[in-house]
Fold this protein.
Amino acid sequence: DIQMTQSPPSLSASVGDRVTITCRASQDISNYLAWLQQKPGKAPKSLIYAASSLQSGVPSRFSGSGSGTDFTLTISSLQPEDFATYYCQQYYRYPLTFGGGTKVEIK
Amino acid sequence: EVQLVESGGVLVQPGGSLRLSCAASGITFSDHYMDWVRQAPGKGLEWVGRSINKANAYTTEYAASVKDRFAISRDESKKSLYLQMNSLKTEDTAVYYCARLISGSNSFDYWGQGTLVTVSS
């Protein structure tokens, strides 16, 4: 199975901060990488697919980059509604696998 | 508007069986790949399995942890996806989500709200 490793596991940030979350795959997954957001008690929400393509309706402050094994999710200016847990996920090969999550908390 | 609504989650004893449903609306149900993903309490996301679309004869794929115990099926007339869960174990306790995949992308776009399955004696 392809292992997905996210860092950091958690971070504290203030409204308006630029936030970067990284995700590393245990093997080359090309750009078959998605980012998801999950708030407590809620279903995941898909943010980005194909490493850098924004899902419809997702604010432009979210961006993704990377290819191969190393990927990044950036929130350019953190908003109150962005405090959540973020997951990366590969869909290059079965079984689909997820990173362990990064919890973004209010500083 | 796309909506996915899961149901069927309950408390069940180890070794028992359960069928979850996911009712879809606002989509051309037969065109899309549909997955089940679960989340144990306080844990991360785990892929359970997939129903590929009608053009591919609704072929299925499963995670190793559920293969031979779980089965995914669809009813086109009801626009519903199912997860038949047999030989349940305590480690199957989780919120189960159904999710739609973007046509041609194999990436998720829409998720249901989830249904809680608790396996306990």
Q: What stands out?
A: Residues 20 and 74 of chain A are 4 Å apart (CA to CA). Chain A has no helices and eleven strands. The two ends of chain A are 36 Å apart (CA to CA). The interface with chain B takes residues 32, 34, 36, 38, 42-46, 49-50, 55-56, 87, 89, 91, 94-101 of chain A (CB under 8 Å).
